[in-house]
Amino acid sequence: MRSLFLAVVVVALSVASLAVAKTERFTVVFLNPGGATSFWGMVADTMTAAADDLSIDLEVINTDRDRIAMLAAARDIAKRADKPDYVVLVNELEQGMAMQREMNRAGIKTFYLLNRLSDDQLAEFGPSESSTVVGSITPDNEIAGYEMAKSLILEAKRRLTAIDSIRIMAILGDTVTPAALEREAGLRRALAEEPSARLVRAFPVLWNKDEARRRASFALKVEKVDGIWAANDDLAIGAQEAASAMGRRPGEDLLFAGLNWSSDGLAAVQSGAMTMTHGGHFFGGAWAMVMLRDMAEGSAEPGNYRFDMSAVHAKNVDLFIERIGDRDWGKIDFKTFSRSMGGRKSYDFCADAILAAATLPIE
After folding, report:
1. How many CA atoms lie within 13 A of 75 on its CB side?
2. What is the DSSP letter of 65?
3. In a domain, 5, yes or no
């Protein structure tokens, strides 16, 4: 009987040790290419909420879209005596390779968020330089750009019946970031499918709302424009301000589409000033934490993962504002999205899953 008791104790202790191992903490540094507000602030906020749920010690370093600050931060991390287990990087402004080389020299594992290194870039690491990249998670930006353009075209056909061609102006974020290039590719695919639509002007504004307002003000004076496709909500709002100052009526005689699910974007869709705000990709910060937790537990293989973005339009905007308009990510239990901690067999990072998780339980 005593032997049986000891055997039960050993088994119980083994199970307990496994449970502890399942929630063993590890450290992550997010080298944020942006700041604490706007889009990159939302990315960091969802990442922080998920890290808390997933027992991850997270440090966020903001670099405010400064190339020099990005590389300096990467070098500082690489020189630390107490190095993090992972560094989350973004290949923003084509700084990924320089930052990655710092991580390679230090032997720190890296994971890419939203904008990853291309296969051609990864191939540049020769036999003498071991890459520490364990994977990435990126959204489908091409379909976002495509659906934004389609929404402008369809709404123009419905509202602007007196025109025989649909003239689209595109305000691009930049011309080097992979996400920006994919969104533009989606725009051009939608235009190629529609004989009545044509691109009358396209220009980059480096994600600057004030620059979008200034450039749009000039362009609208020299071009006849029916719809403005903007690479994010801030650029769309800046262009709307320029149009309104000229006597145009956003959502009536000039259509807009944006991206980010920002508070201003959601409000513009609700008021009818924008046809849609595409997005959900700021939850990529949370999904990066889910993937790293599952990789650490052996529930996910290292690799490049993709997730869908979704459109918020007139038919669903009220629900989005009701569920996530308060930006309280603490009410979402991000463990439920994980294989290792939530028991999922497959990942589901779609908008419906986010909205369902954002529903507070009845007490």
Report:
1. 8
2. T
3. no
Query: Is residue 265 assigned to a domain?
Result: yes
Could you give the CA distance from residue 351 to residue 332 in angstroms, rounded to a whole number? Answer: 13
Q: Are residues 231 and 130 in the same domain?
A: no
At residue 110, what are phi and psi to the nearest 5 degrees? Answer: -125, 150
What's the structural domain count of the chain? 2
Nearest Cα neighbor of 178 from 101, 221, 229, 119 is 119
313-324 b/e (C-beta count within 10 Å ≥ 16 → b): beebbeebbebb
d(CA 114, CA 111): 10
Give the separation between CA 288 and CA 300, rounded to whole angstroms.
12
* Alpha carbon separation from 290 to 285, 301, 333, 344 (Å, rounded): 9, 12, 11, 11
Q: 39 and 106, same structural domain?
A: yes
- Which pair of tokens denotes residue 171? 């305000």
Say if CB 320 and CB 266 are below 8 A apart: yes
Q: What DSSP element (H or E) covers 230?
A: strand 227-230
Domain of residue 295 covers: 25-139+282-357
Residue 261 gets which letter from DSSP? -
Q: How many other CB atoms are there within 10 angstroms of residue 157's CB atom?
A: 14
Q: Give the number of other Cβ atoms within 10 Å of residue 261's Cβ.
A: 28
- Neighbouring CB atoms inside 10 A of 260's CB total 25
> Where do we find the tokens 């262009």?
239
Q: Kindly report whether the global pTM for this prediction surpasses the value 0.70.
A: yes
What is the C-alpha end-to-end distance of the chain, expressed in Å?
46
Site of tokens 């590719």 = 185
pLDDT digits 0-9 by tens, 203-254:
999 999 999 999 999 999 999 999 999 999 999 999 999 999 999 999 999 9
